[in-house]
Amino acid sequence: MKRKTVATSTLSATERRLQRLGLRTPQDCVIHLPIRYEDETQLHRIASARVGQTVQLEGEISYNEVQLRPRRQLVALLRDDTGSIFLRWLHFYPNQQKQVSKGQLVRVRGEIRSGFNGLEIVHPRVSRAGGALASTFTPVYSTTDGLTQPVLRKIIGQALESADLSDTLPDTIRHRFKLMPFAQAVRTLHYPPTQTTLSSLEERSHPAWQRIKFDELLAQQLSLASARALRLEQTATPLNANHEPLFNALRERLPFALTRAQERVINEISQDLSRAYPMHRLLQGDVGSGKTIVAAFAALKAISSGAQVAVMAPTELLAEQHYHKLQAWMTPLGVQVQWLSGSQKSKNKQQVLGSIAGGETQLVVGTQALIQTSVEFHCLGLVILDEQHRFGVGQRLALGQKGEQQVSHAPLLPHQLNMSATPIPRTLAMTLFADLDVSVLDELPPGRRAVVTKLVADSRRQELIAHIHSEIQKGRQVYWVSPLVEESEALQLQTAVDTHAYLQQTLPDLSIGLVHGRLKSAEKTEVMEAFRSGEISLLVATTVIEVGVDVPNATLMVIEHAERFGLAQLHQLRGRVGRGAEQSVCVLLYQPPLSAIARQRLRTMYETTDGFEVARRDLALRGPGEFLGLRQSGVPLLRFADIETDTALVEQAQSLATELLSNARDIAQVHLDRWMKGKHVYLRS
Predict the structure, then answer these.
(1) Cβ–Cβ < 8 Å for 644, 198
(2) Are residues 59 and 143 in the same domain?
(3) Cross-referenced Gene3D superfamilies, in alphabetical order (predicted)?
(4) 294 and 348: one domain?
């Protein structure tokens, strides 16, 4: 475990394995903390062992046999003076067979299970009987192939002796926040004394864990502050020309009045765009809160200053929806709007590319086609990303770089507005997005009525179909969402294609459409236009209609196999109805029996239509990485702190980060050096 950088080819096998775990220095090893613990400090009696309990037993092997049925396996019987228990290996080596030969006195450790012949331990750990018992709980670490727990424990033990365990926080700060000294905390977690309760370690409520979580959160808040400071040092073109004529013209053409929340957010964005450093604002709002019109005003602010605007959405269907809306609002104001997608015909695409490069196109809407090398902007001043968490980090950066201009050796960056219809719980926003400015549309447009959610078992399908027919006879329109396009052997679910055929047969007097991701773009557009215009009364679809589709006359949403969808998807799909004046209903059609998690999801949907409450429960179920789609995007997540349960620590860390940056930047930098080593995070002076 050497500090100096060594060529990979000269590393030992153990060093290469350690590097796979991110362990390059003793300091890295010190904060490679246990994921759980084993209690090897005491022996149990066989008679007291219970199913599900992990025990350590000693006794004599009274029976040993390699059985060939129902499969080849090694079976032994262990006896002590209170009873006997079977030991079983499904995979074994000759030395293991010898280790448990008849008459051997052994110590075994493992989880008690209920077997065909009584209690048993499958693949127990075996050692000689009579050895000294452990004096502390035994740590178990996350590891990699070829790196055993004993080897890892030894390396971490050596690191604790050689690493710098001095405290990054002065005693005054530790006492104020009731924090254990750092050295004591890490030693306690690696070698917890026997008087420590295992539950406090495993639930991470022990004071040692509180110190580690606080340190991690403080480092994260300091690094986000550094990222924010770096952004404030970058330059952007101030978009501060008089925008009132265009703003007023758009307001006059709208058939609705903006909400107070929309007006507030438009003002926040306008102020950002007037500054000489790039805006990096996250606009979040529940489904139906009116983010697109806010984006339209942001675009007009940029266009009034002579800048171009690019709007990028993750799917062609959503991008096209934005294009139609923005074109309808902008064209009467004299703004030239263009559409760009990967499926466009070459001749049409070349015309659009030329118009963008020449500056004639003021607003371009598209998919990831906007970041292709062939796209060149004349003067890109504002980038708007919808459903921003669906794009990878590289994709988000690529569009911003399209607008980068070199002026006096300093790059001018475009302003950026990120929109998300996934409401982000307050603690998560504080923890992961502290480097962004966040605007929240916390008010729905007037006249919107909450969607009623009903849970319906699959056995009532015919009753539901009769209700759909009745609703359509009243002039309403209906969505029916299926989770798959074609039959899968792995998931025997009703598919969109089969459902469409079945409903056509069952409801022959209705016009029923089908849309899914495998249709060509032109076909999808044709079907959606027919549904918007009312030619199609019942639309069978996959989750391609999850975001962006706006048909006010659709008042009923049926989600088939709702138990297979995540909470965020269910909430997004429900948001496709309830966009008109009539009462709307979302039917969650499920197939019993339900798993515990599926039951929690459906109960949440039934109990609340508040997107922030749905998001809070979704975060609790899935964790921040899955919730935000960050696990695949390269964004580092917290290793030790839990955003949902450590709210108080988040607030304390944020408060101390602000204090240190103002009054003690040397302390802040020392703390960052320990926790962010290798990530090159340095505070701006």
Answers:
(1) no
(2) no
(3) Nucleic acid-binding proteins, P-loop containing nucleotide triphosphate hydrolases
(4) yes
Same domain, yes or no, for 12 and 116?
A: no
Q: Which residues form the domain of 27? A: 1-34+134-158
Residues 268 and 382 in one domain: yes
Residue 683 pLDDT more than 90?
no
493 SS3 class: coil
- Edge to edge, the sheet with strand 512-515 lists 452-457, 585-590, 554-560, 477-481, 538-541, 512-515
Q: How far is CA 415 from the centre of its chain?
A: 25
Does a structural domain hold residue 214? Answer: no
Give Cα 507 distance to the centre of its chain. Answer: 40
Say whether 634 sits in a helix, a strand or coil: coil
Residue 678 confidence (pLDDT) above 60? no
Where among 402, 417, 441 does a domain terminate? 441
CB atoms within 10 A of CB 619: 21
The pair of structure tokens assigned to 258 is: 């903006």
Q: Do residues 383 and 312 touch, judged by C-beta distance below 8 A?
A: yes
Percent helix, strand, coil in the chain, to 5, is: 40, 20, 40
Q: Are residues 405 and 510 in the same domain?
A: no
Domain co-membership, 60 together with 151? no
- Residue 258: inside a domain: yes
pLDDT digits (tens, 9 = 90+) for 15-58: 999 998 889 899 999 999 999 898 888 899 999 999 988 899 99
| Predicted confidence (pLDDT) per residue in 551-594, tens digit | 889 999 999 999 988 888 898 889 888 887 789 999 999 999 99
Task: Measure the CA–CA gap between 206 and 57, rounded to whole angstroms.
Answer: 29
Number of domain units in the chain: 4
Does this model's pTM top 0.70? My answer is no
Backbone angles phi, psi at 264, to 5 degrees: -65, -45
333 burial (CB, 10 Å; 0-12 / 13-18 / 19+) is middle
- Boundary of a domain, candidates 109, 128, 147: 128
Q: Under a CB-based contact definition with an 8 Å cutoff, are residues 563 and 536 in contact?
A: no
396 lies in some domain? yes
The CATH number linked to 95 is 2.40.50.140
Q: Is 499 helix (H, G, I), strand (E, B) or coil?
A: helix
The three-state secondary structure class of 275 is coil
Tens digits of residue pLDDT in 124-140? 999 999 989 988 888 99
Residue 174 lies in a domain: no
> In this structure, what are the phi and psi dihedrals at residue 570, rounded to the nearest 5 degrees?
-60, -45
Same domain, 461 and 356: no
d(CA 451, CA 564): 21
Question: How do residues 472-481 score in pLDDT, each as one tens digit?
Answer: 999 999 999 9
- Return the bridge partners of 126, or none: 108
- Beta bridge partners, 475, equal none
pLDDT band at 7; cut points 50, 70, 90: very low
Q: How much is the average pLDDT of 370-388?
A: 82
Query: What does residue 308 show for φ and ψ, rounded to 5 degrees?
Result: -90, 155
pLDDT level of residue 398 (50, 70, 90 thresholds): low
CA angle at 225 for the pair 224 and 227, rounded to the nearest 5°: 60
CA dist 64 and 498 (Å) reads 56
Q: Tokens for 137?
A: 């709980």
Cα separation, 329 vs 293, in Å, equals 9
Strands 83-89, 380-386: pairing kind: unpaired
Residue 607 has pLDDT above 60, yes or no: yes
Percent of the chain with pLDDT over 70: 88
For residue 435, pLDDT over 80 is answered with no
* 3-class SS of residue 331: helix
CA dihedral sign of residues 320, 326, 329, 334: negative
Pairing of the two strands 105-115 and 118-122: antiparallel
62 and 16, same structural domain? no
